[in-house]
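Appendix B. One record, verbatim.
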Amino acid sequence: MRTLLISALFAFASIANAQPKPIRLIVPYPPGGPLDTVARALADKVHDTLGSVIVDNRPGAGGNLGADLAARAAPDGTTIVMGAVATHAINPWLFAKMPYDALRDFTPITGVAQVPNVLVMNAQNADKLGIRSVADLVAYAKKNPGKLNYGSGGNGSAGHLAGEMFKAQAGVFMVHIPYAGGSPAQLALISGQVDLNFDNLAAASANIKSGKLRAIAVTTTARSSAMPEVPTIAEGGKAVGLGGFAINTWFGLFGPAKMPADVTQKLNKAFVDALHSPELKARLSTLMAESIASTPEQFGAFVKSEHAKYKGVVKASGATVE
């Protein structure tokens, strides 16, 4: 009997040791946002291939806190992070001091999704000013320098930087008015306190459909499948210097630097397969997001290009965080 008990204990220990260690997926933002929503959907979907994936929300310092935790983790694939345009492209130029190097301290795994931003105006104000297109907006701004203003969720936010990039490429001047978050900025636009915003398409969609806001153009290189009737800024702005305009909100998965290639490939396959599933496509659709599933090499090249692009954008904005 004793021998049987000991054998059973050894068998149990062997089974326990064979179980993969849970993967910690850090989301460097609070629960409930798009990154968190998609991270939890991915965690559920990859359970059969990767085992337990535990989403760990670690907000703070504009996403830097959570990203730094992942950068400092052991490169064994058990700690990864849902990085974003802020943590890996904007913050390195926005913050005076960074706890990590956005390129050297991480192993790209795959892109996850991008969410288009949209240039929107208060519909009544747009009618009053005769603005229905990007060309109309640029023409008015050039004839009336400083008369137009735009709101954003704060200095250094995606909306702020999109506005500064628009101003620089079109050669116009508009006054930036920062608010304490995207929602107050949108309320200011609806009430007519500001003339235009570069808002998240998902956040602005209800007010666009109700007619309170007019969608002038999306900021991505291609039209959004969620609102295909809305042109891109590049389409409508070719004649006014905006033919190469492209800016959006994106997020993707990273591991610590020096993660073994076989571990990276295993994670990449599991998450890319999940992103191609009907369940994840449906979840992204509700957020008006589009998958950017990719190889580690493709995602790494994309991050490098975004990192370089935002250096000039942040500098032009004048935004800094000490």
